[in-house]
Amino acid sequence: MKRILFLLLLLVQSSLIFSDSSNPIQNLEKRVIEQTLPNGLKILILERHQAPLVSFQMMFKTGGVDETSGKTGLAHLFEHMLFKGTKTIGTKDYDKEKTVLEEIDKTALEILEAESDQEKLNLEKIKALKKKMETLETEHQKWVIPEEYDQIYIRHGAEGLNAFTGQDMTGFVVSLPSNKWELYFLMESERMKNPVLREFYKERDVVMEERRMRYETAPQGALWENFISLAFKAHPYASPTIGWTSDIKNLTLRDAQEFFSKHYVSNNATVVIVGDVRAKEVLEKFNAYFLSLSSGALPSSYKTVEPAQTGEKRSLVHFDAEPSLLMGFKKPNPPHSDNFVMEMMEQLLSRGRSSRFYRNIVEKKIALSVWASNGNPGERYPNLIVFGGSPRKPFKNKDLEIAILQELGRLKKERVSEQELEKILNQIEADFIRNLSSNSGMASQLAYNQVVLGDWKYLFQYLKKMRQITPEELQKAAQKYFVEDTKTATFLERERLGLP
Amino acid sequence: MKKFLSWFAISFSLFFTALDAHPLKEPEFKSLKFLPPKIESHSLQSGATLFMLEDHELPLVQLTALVRTGTMFESEREVGLASLCGALLRAGGTTKRKVEKMDEELEFMGASLESGIDLESGSISLSILSKDLDKGLNLFFEMLTTPNFDKKKLEIEKAKIIETIRRRNDDPFQIARREFRKLLYGSKHPLSRTQEIPFIKKISRKDLFNFYQQYYFPNNMMIAISGDFSSKEIIQKLENYFSFWKKEKKELAGVFSLEEKERFLKKTRGVGFAEKKINQASILIGQLGIKRHNPDRFALEVLNEILGGSSSSRLYKEVRSRSGLAYWVGSSFSEPYDYGIIAAGCQTKSETLGQAIRSIFKQVESLRDSLVSEEELKTAKDALINSFVFRYNSSHAIVTQKMNLDYFGFAKDYLETYTQKIEEITASQLLEVARKYLKPEEMTLMAVGEEASFDVPLKEFGTVKPIDLKINE
Question: Which CATH class for the A37-290 domain?
């Protein structure tokens, strides 16, 4: 749990919709109940009574993109910290615990300061401070009830207790047997009102381990991080959500507290509930639990604008693994209409066994796998359509790159047939129906559309937008966006190039 | 999103002794009233068993068939044949239709049809809008009864498998899991053996046909169907399709399994080690445990929740929260047809590997040394019992669960009595199973990482066996 998902969007975007009148799922949009408290906190409820279960998602419009330089990884580390309990959960006596916590924070800052003076490192002093820290942490453990927050949920039968941080947002998810739904309000309002960021410096170590696991020892993670940070040079999308190692090491409890008060305000969040509940009952309690949450000025949305790219960018990741590659092109973000055209491209190229990539690249034995994904690494700002894959020996990254480019070239030269477009639309419709059968799937789509794209109703307009796309538009967009000047390509290879 | 842990729970004793005075006041919950829907089952004339659950909420039908086969039936010299057969059943087209045409037709309907073979079963699944059900059934049966195993497509699938083998040392944790199984079972057991390039290259279309004919016949399969259909009609339709496919009388091949004495062969700790120049080590620690249907499984399930099965387990609290040594740490137990594995593990930076191993052993030993508190026991049991209802998450989950229990020969009342069996577990039973199944001095360790950076030499934990990761082309 408590992990970041860099490919989250792959999941979110298979989210689709139905809106023509022959549609058997009529009025679904009308079944979604929406309310906003005076403090700006929004709730969406969709009743489904098929099983005695209910899924929840609380999403904040804050993520990696909202960090400042030097503090990368803060949004994600903070997400971890929200599982550490509150003034009433996870402690034997908060008043006594607080004194020790303050001492720990003070000592941590002294260590940072001592270590930052690179010119004349006082090793004796650092050693003494670290010793003091150890003693304090042992002392602190006397007051802690470890993992009590998770434990309360789990004891009541919770499933899928988790959270994720992306570039654009942070989400907290859980499902419960429906008789326990009110527990959700209790637990979430508690941690939004009174979180205690205990064991912060240990959790920072945990995140370092997460970073090693996902990005430093995993070839796909290393490739992704390298690729994204090459594609963007000025916009904060360039920095990984998990944070750069040196930034994570320097994050402090104070940074986390500040991040919380700035970003975790009620008017920056949406709660979504899908499942076996009665909306009327839920809304009554919603007021009672969340009305006292404080709203605040929303953090500045200013972000450095990525300057226009003026030539292809390439990089190489040297890694002890078989080769793989990523390639991407810059493009606009939603609601720009070309974004929907790119969604269609993704499907045409890589959806299923009859897709172009599968037929023309995998079946020709050039690659083990090859895929397309629109909207990376986030969708709040102009982003990338990304292509990735792993060549099959004796083919190399270079061969796979050419094969992908040939498929993109075909989209520029030839019009897509109506039949092929119809197939994609039918797949999207069928997917939408399948997704309806999952409470948690619906909850995350509603939350994502509301928080990141700005309105949950977009979920229900998606298919209509897709239906409007013409073969001409596809061809035009291919010609406009699949160009050398906005291209980025990264290869992961075992062999070094070698200098003369 | 947690891949390696299941989501149940455990408690911390101090919490409960202080429960009355706890500052957090929980609301009162109504009891959960839920009667699981009744599954209709029906024996088709062909000998196949059918499980049905109508659900007209969405215009969708899902069908899953199980065939009694598996990679466990392969001989040692043909490893890979079964999974190729499962994949090619779908990817190789039929004698009536090229696979490209089948793909187009299915995807034009937004449908999916997939086939595969695992360790202990073969499966075929269809997901389709109810308006297209007849077309879907037609393709389903065409594939099942007249597969073509097209030679060109076989070469493509073989190429994919060979490339996957070539990539199997890219991920350190994957290496640890694979080599751990080999240490425990030896390299020839169906639960540990791996596909190798020279064998894959030799597999022919004829081999696939033979394997298919050996296992794919109507009285060797079960079908579960859920969604928007009529039971009466579907029975009739399936009877029609099956009437063209004949019953067979075939003996299934024998399956390799361990002798009772082999399980207890290892009396000293052994350490497997694979070198990988990375900054984080993967470690797995464990031993062989129980087979499916062992009555101790209920106690072991509770024990596992307490040890490392959730984010409030002892391992999670000690290794992750308190010490900051790992992001992933946990434990699990499996119960396949032969002895399964009971194991714990984590991924930690090279410099703290020894510390993490000691910490894991300490938690394992704590379960053998003393009784878990009544509070800790109750929390673990409550978690399992309260989350039990998630097994009824969707109509298809309900109907396939019923089929699976039948396939694997569970008692008819397995589900109905499950929560009661968990409820009855006592602390002294847990101590008994801990002492019976967790023997730290006999456990096998598997480590992957950069040895030069380890804080403790691996030989402290037993005789070290270096593992060669070379892949034969």
Answer: alpha beta
